[in-house]
Design brief:
The chain has twelve helices and ten strands. It starts with a strand and ends with a helix. A hairpin with a 2-residue loop joins strand 7 and strand 8. The protein is an alpha/beta fold and 269 residues long.
């Protein structure tokens, strides 16, 4: 997505979560388009992206980091804000570390930051075989990947599983770019194999980057079942707060606080 005044350089680049796509976050980001230009790309293997994404097991998200660094290199203008949700938040942080002179701050919405000992262990040789047994990876491989139409997919998802509580507008945006035509129906743009591969690719430890980035970092954590183990005040320069009543999907279900955090970052010169 490209929101706001296309004549100005991008102020904010927002990166979606694993299995999602940029359009899923339209209702979060669109209200900010009056004050900023916002780019929200589809990551490799998601949405409308045509970059190759073979469903093989990977050790880390460094390939996604490098894609984002390449995108930053293609953008001309002053330093920008990088932001994202879940996996996308960590990719934003890692890309900021690759191009610190092009980034002014990072906003992370319930990022996947494992406890430090676990994060260190996930970088060890051979640990990837264990990561493949994650329940999230196993569940992704079992996802139904074909439907007769997007409307059928909407009906199948509405009020169920991870989609419980999603507003219809958000679910419709997810389905619109989350599926592509396949024969006489539609299939997931992010294949179950690629989604599982991302869940298992936990070999990129974000803790050193959080300590050394040298740019303001804002983290919003879910109150319930957060994927972020960073505590308030734990790291200098990293502002951590909790979204009351929010679960991991709060950017879609409770967008006011994350939108306010993005807006505040945009207001800092």
């Amino acid at each position: 997505m490209d929101l706001g005044d296309s004549a100005r350089p991008p102020d904010l680049v927002f990166i979606h979560a694993n299995g999602f796509n940029a359009r899923t976050y339209r209702t979060l980001l669109e209200p900010l388009a009056g004050k900023a230009r916002i780019l929200a790309p589809d990551l490799r293997g998601h949405g409308l992206s045509t970059l190759p994404a073979p469903p093989v097991w990977r050790r880390s998200w460094r390939d996604l980091r490098d894609d984002m660094a390449a995108l930053i290199d293609a953008i001309h203008g002053p330093p920008m804000i990088l932001a994202g949700h879940s996996m996308g938040a960590v990719v934003a942080l890692l890309a900021a570390a690759q191009r610190p002179d092009r980034v002014r701050s990072v906003v992370m919405l319930d990022p996947v930051v494992l406890p430090r000992p676990t994060a260190l262990a996930m970088s060890l040789p051979g640990i990837g075989r264990v990561a493949r047994r994650y329940s999230l990876a196993r569940n992704a491989l079992r996802r139904r990947d074909r439907f007769g139409s997007r409307a059928e997919a909407m009906d199948a998802y509405r009020g169920r599983g991870a989609f419980r509580g999603w507003p219809d507008a958000v679910l419709a945006d997810y389905v619109a770019d989350g599926f592509r035509g396949a024969g006489d129906g539609v299939e997931l743009a992010c294949t179950p194999g690629w989604e599982a591969s991302n869940y298992a690719a936990q070999g990129c430890d974000p803790w050193p980057v959080l300590h050394s980035l040298g740019r303001p970092v804002v983290i919003l954590k879910a109150e319930h079942s957060s994927t972020c183990s960073v505590a308030p005040g734990q790291i200098a320069g990293v502002d951590v707060s909790t979204v009351p009543g929010g679960n991991h999907f709060f950017p879609l279900l409770k967008p006011d606080q994350p939108r306010a955090a993005l807006s505040a970052a945009l207001d800092v010169a």
